[in-house]
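Thread title: Can someone regenerate the structure for this chain?

I was given the following input by a collaborator and told the matching structure tokens would be attached. They weren't. Posting the sequence so someone can regenerate them.
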Amino acid sequence: MPVGGQRWLTHEELASGRRNDIRAEGDYDGVGVEPAVAIGQRALLVPAGDRLVLWDCVPMLDDDAAAEIERRGGLAGIAISHPHYYTGMVEWAQRLGCPVYLHADDREWIMRPDPAIELWEGETKDLGHGLTLIRCGGHFAGGTVLHDAARGNLLSGDIVQVIPDRGWVSFMYSYPNLIPLPEATVRRIVSALEPYEFDAVYGAWWGTLVRPDAKAIVSRSADRYVAALRGEFP
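Best answer:
Regenerated them for you:
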């Protein structure tokens, strides 16, 4: 958050001088906004049969990006990890004619209701084609990750945070205020991921990729995090 606080833009102001950037990101193509806006996250286009699932979202969708996604088969759906990335989800859903999957535990954070939004409940949601949404919680009750079984990847947003040292990941309740998560919440995240095999973790920004041995890295990172909370960190 800038020292001066938030500044709101209309869709027209946001799009002025900006464009979508689609480029390779590991096993996927990513979609960002250039020049970057707000926290500068990028989304991922995940193959789902003849179509794609958009993982997380960015604030705008220009004509060229929409046409390219439609050329690739269009979107089967949009799945979002947590409210910080709700951003332009309604515009994306309306333009590309697809549902938006959000966990029901985060329904209070939906500022712009729309018929395209589908709330799901429980701990997992099967999207087909080896794609599974997993509720991990974290800094939001409905915090969700996407497991891609076909590629052995975990798409985590910042529920599991990729950090500069790619031998570790981390967790946080409030990133701007550096407030940590409690031990029980961190353990719950690891427990929710235990049934799933993955060799890579994709974070929410360009180049945030942990590979290989990502599942072991998540586990040992949780142990280190908990040790630090207990005052046992050397």
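The two ends are 32 Å apart (CA to CA).
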